Amino acid sequence: MCPMGRKWNNIKEKKAQKDKNTSRIYAKFGTEIFVAAKKGEPDPELNQALKFVIERAKTYNVPRHIIDRAIEKAKGGSDEHYDELRYEGFGPNGSMIIVDALTNNVNRTAADVRAAFGKNGGNMGVTGSVTYMFDATAVFMFEGKTSDEVLEILLEADIDVRDILEEEDSVIVYAEPEQFHAVQQALKNAGITEFSVAEITMLPQTEITLSGEAKAQFEKLIDALEDLDDVQQVYHNVNLDD
Fold first, then answer.
1. Which domains does the chain have, with CATH numbers?
2. pLDDT in tens, 77-95
3. CA 25 → CA 15, 19, 210, 222, 232, distances in Å?
4. What are 172's strand-pairing partners?
5. Taking the model in full, what pTM does it have?
6. Mean pLDDT across the stretch 137-151?
7. What positions does the domain TACO1/YebC-like N-terminal occupy (predicted)?
8. Most buried residue, 19, 20, 89, 161, by CB count within 10 Å?
C-alpha cells in the first residue's frame, strides 16, 4: 500500500497554473528529450528512456514541435554534453528535498542550487542524507475506469502493482519503476490513452505538515529551486494540500 494520500490532481493543477504563461517547462523537457535521444537511439520505439520522457512530456502538453526539435538536435550530432546530478537537502522543520538536474555547467548548477537553499531557509545535505526516506515509484493517473476494472486489467496482463486508488474521478496506480512501460502498455491495450500523470517519481515514505511561516518559507524554497533552468524535478516530503 502507498503510505501517502498525495492529491495528484491538485499537484498537476498547481504546476499547470505556474507554468501556463512561460516556456520554462518546454525548455526543460527539450533538454531532457535531447539527452535521452543522444544517449541511445533517437527512435522512442528503440529507446525506452526516450519513450518514457516523451510520454511524460505529453502529460504536460508539451507541443510536438518541441519534442521533434530536441530529437532532431540529437540526430544532428550536437556535441553539447549534459551531466545528470542529484542534490539533497533540508528545508524548515526537518523537511526533506531532492533536486534532480541536467546541466552543461556543473559548477554553475551547484552554486545556483546551494544559493536557493541558503537564501530560503534551507541547507544542502550530503549524498544519501535524504533519498533513503523516499521510494522511486511509477505513478499513473487517469479517468474512465474504476479501481476494480483497472485491477482486473492488470491481473489479466499478469502485472502485480503496489497499489490502486480512486481519488475523486480518477484512478491512481502506483507501481515499481521497472514496471512503468508494462503497466502503461496494459492500460493502453484496455483503451486508456489519456494520462494526467504518467511518470517515475520519488515518493516520501512519510509526509510532514508545515503551517504558518514555516510553510510559506518552504513554498518559497521549492519555487526558487523549480525556477532554476537546470533543475528538472524537485521532490519533497511536505503535504502542501493541508
1. 8-75 (1.10.10.200)
2. 778 889 999 999 999 998 9
3. 10, 7, 27, 15, 9
4. 141, 165
5. 0.87
6. 92
7. 6-77
8. 89
